[in-house]
Fold each of these.
Amino acid sequence: MKVRVLASGSKGNCILVSGEQTSILIDAGLSMRKIKEILFEIDFPVEKIKAILISHEHSDHIKGAGAIARNFRIPLLVNEATYRVGLRRFGRIPELIHFENGQKFTFNDLLIDPFSVPHDSVDSSCFLISERGYPHKLGVITDLGYPTMLVKEMMKKPSTVILESNHDIDMLINGPYQWWLKQRVKGKNGHLSNIQAIELLEEVLHDGLKNIVLAHLSEVNNKPDLAFNSMQRFLKERQAMCNLFIAEQYKPTEWIEV
């Protein structure tokens, strides 16, 4: 199984996961047209995508989901509360597959383990995903205000993790956001900072972790070099042999073997 982050940030999020038999999108927070353009640019046939897995109902995660599901004729994998709240934006969906956080389920040859995280949405999900017959796991840990004990436990399992590193706390506090928005971002239902991402890894770093992708970086309150260098210093201090990547808003990552 391999993964490629197609876009990551407040203007839209979309992750492509491709196994031997099944490929899915995690979220579709860009327009259908834009996602099709990116897939064309990376030479990935849209016909190979078999479903869209939805994390939560914020528009930067579901903007194009309904249109893609209808146009590609593929199911939407979504928990019931998220679907209910996002119904008007999703529109008519040809096939729905509901899951529950805390209950593993299979889709074709993929095993998906969704779990709840604290975020200002109705029922946010993060995911562990693996492919039948293979031990490696992909963790998608973004859009959460703080790492709960459950998050920490789940983080001990993946070989590749897409991890939120949304903001630098000093840039956020001294930046242009209104105070209420600063409070939202750094609150327990907001987003992980660079420091929080490092602190989480400090607790859960394990020998099986080989790839870290820093994601959902704020264009206003963070800088790619700042997030990358901070995490890189930590990994060197811990003598961790992990590959480190940055997921960008306007440029897909390379293919990463999970």
Amino acid sequence: MMNYVSFGYYGLLVILLALYYVLPLKYRWLALLAGSGCFYWLAVEDWQQLVVFAVTIGISYVFGVLISCLKEREIKVKHQQMILFLGIVLSIFPLLGSKSTDFFLGCIVHRQKLSWIVPLGLSFYSLQVVAYLADIYKGRTECQKNLLKYALFISFFPQIIQGPIPRYDQMKEQLFEGHTYDSDRFMKGIQLIIWGFFLKFMIANKASIIVDTVFNNHMAYQGCFVLVAGVLYSFQLYADFQSCVVMSQGVSQMFGIELTDNFHHPYFSRSIKEFWRRWHISLSNWLRDYVYIPLGGNRGGQFRKYLNLILTFAVSGIWHGGSWKYLFWGLMHAGYQICGDLTKNIQEKVYGFLRMPANSRLRRLVQQFCTFGLVMTAWIIFRADSLMTGLKMIWSIFTCFNPWILLNSSLFRLGLHQKECEILVLSLFVLLCVSRLQERGICIRDWFARQHLIVRWGIYFCAICGIWVFGTYGYGFDANDFIYGGF
């Protein structure tokens, strides 16, 4: 199977780049369409997934045109709404079916789950389709009359697996109007790909060994073992997901296409509300625009606002998976935000009593630490085998006192030897430094562009060799294992 870290993928990419820049400008989108089709064909496990994906594209295309025609002819709004509802349900039926039946059979009646055909990227392109149809209905965008161009929008290969989730207006001109070759933009794309490999193999895959050891043997590892695993899983998930996104952005930039950022250093957040403005930004914006606001948003009083927030995060939880743990994880974040909103006056009084003004560095650090602790606790539920297992693991942090494992060699018996752990810590330090610089508005890629050619390529060479030699590919490593690719 082909994926974003396989040799076959980059072989296909070289062929597509050559074809793209050889074709006349107005036909270059055809190279992207052909590449997207080849990638999807080579990446799926069987032809049935490809058929479901193609049918989804066809159905959503037809309903997009139909909604547009009804609007042009000023047909009654309720008829437009009926067509919109039908189009959305039919287009995302595989997603609705797999998530709802998994939840009902597995969590409610405790029966064996059905075997659904789940196409690659189902959870991501389904949201893309919903946004497209809703935007046509709302008059925010015009429908795409060319079926092949619409198919390219849905299937664009750098972002089909894990996003970011694009809007049609963001992508239509970039995809369909050919771009000329730009060496600076091309090299910045390569830099992003190298950074993605660093995040994947130097952080995510290394951290996963310790995380898997603890979570897969939760009865044997309690207390500070769970705390360490929870912290490492937080960084593993971020590095793994971000690596896929930046590689997608890097490949897109090589074609002259800019994908939106999906993360903005979320662990620097000072509140859960801010965390969701920085984490999985395209999903957060989608939930806001197509769930929270249609439910009423902040309108209708405080109770209605909180109810809408709960429903929105419940949707987010079920989107991630059809089990109690994902629903509980989503509701935890809703609860965090509601509690934060209800206690904001108390928080201000506490900070005032402790002489921590709003802009003080100490207050910022305390808020960031507390926010990370809340997020990490929720991630333990997210990662655990079940909701009850996750709750027991969290409980053990407070009831099993074993801080000495942080000082002896206990952590080195979790799958990573001391040298490997040191490399992981060093890699996390590099991530922290890069993130701090970016938070201050310093663009590292612009700094690279100002350096001499020999310096730039020397850094590229050292980075690639370092990742190749020190990167962790795991025991039984499978290059398909991007965490969010499973949702």
